[in-house]
Design goal:
With 308 residues, this protein is an all-beta fold. Helix content is 2%, strand content 44%.
């Protein structure tokens, strides 16, 4: 078995709710008068490149935590208090329906509301931290790691459906391994990230991220890198170190090292294309906002010989 070391000589390019203390009665969701609060979900290019998972929207049946709060100004008293809700997408276009199809209503005094929405539902407005999965080989684990938040202010009651524009708060890493000169067999080869933080402080009240914390560890991405695979990590800076490992089917091991700090930004995708030749490696990597399609710019190529 050979151990293969690749050092990266260049740094990645840069591109440049309600709570129980509120006053007022619970919103009446059973009356026939008033205006129901109608919502839909929009997503910034939600994808898992290997399968086209939720390519441009939440897939049908995705559950989202919704927190509503009446808008007050100048010391006004809250007249309507909303319980936490779970909405579910009813189609692939982002249409949302509350559980049991029981809609909340706008305040009857004509005031508007603020909306905080959090995905996945395992994360509530009581959250103080978020962790991505250590093994992201399945779509379920990948989606559980894709923390998204949407906020909106609806200034007055309206019968129009309001779109909640969700943003990815984590960082997406995509890895594509290509068989090059000599046609090494890459099928059934595994990819594992090294030296990454999986935990980050997160306020479920504001929907804002803090700093990463805890210990650095690994994330298992796939057991077959013959097609492009993706995983999700918290935004973070990674100092020079071993960044990922590829174990080929013949048990040769490729370690990919960085020699400068890697800056992984919230809401961005970083794509590594690794060509495995008989005696060398060629690596191209790009970065772009998660919400944009790759345009071919900001490409860096590196080359290294394999250690025998």
């Amino acid at each position: 078995m050979r151990n293969i070391l690749l050092y990266m000589a260049s740094a990645l390019l840069f591109l440049t709710g309600c709570n129980s203390s509120d006053e007022g009665p619970i919103a009446d969701t059973d009356h026939d008068s008033g205006i129901p609060i109608m919502l839909r979900a929009g997503v910034e290019n939600l994808t898992r490149a290997s399968s086209g998972l939720q390519n441009s929207q939440f897939e049908k049946g995705a559950a989202i935590n919704i927190y509503l709060k009446e808008i007050t100004t100048g010391g006004q008293t809250v007249t309507t208090k909303y319980s936490p809700l779970v909405y579910t997408t009813t189609n692939a276009s982002g249409a949302l329906s509350p559980q049991n199809n029981t809609y909340p209503y706008f305040p009857t005094n004509g005031r508007g509301i603020t909306v905080l929405a959090i995905y996945p539902t395992a994360v509530t407005n009581a959250a103080t931290t978020f962790s991505v999965e250590a093994e992201q080989k399945t779509n379920l684990a990948y989606k559980a790691s894709d923390l998204m938040v949407a906020t909106d202010t609806i200034p007055a009651p309206t019968s129009q459906v309001q779109t909640l524009q969700f943003k990815h708060l984590m960082t997406k890493i995509s890895i594509q391994v290509v068989s090059g000169t000599g046609s090494p067999n890459i099928k059934n080869s595994s990819v594992t990230l090294y030296n990454v933080y999986r935990d980050i402080y997160f306020s479920g009240v504001t929907g804002q991220l803090g700093d990463v914390h805890g210990s650095r560890g690994t994330i298992a991405v796939t057991d077959d890198c013959s097609t492009q695979q993706s995983c999700i990590i918290p935004p973070q800076d990674i100092d020079p170190c071993r960044f990922f490992r590829i174990r080929l089917a013949n048990r040769d091991v490729i370690y990919y090292y960085s020699t400068q700090t890697l800056n992984f930004k919230s809401g961005h995708e970083y794509k590594f294309v690794i060509t495995v030749n008989q005696n060398s490696l060629d690596v191209t990597y790009t970065m772009h906002p998660w919400s944009d399609e790759e345009d071919g710019s900001n490409v860096v190529t590196t080359h290294a010989d394999m250690e025998q």
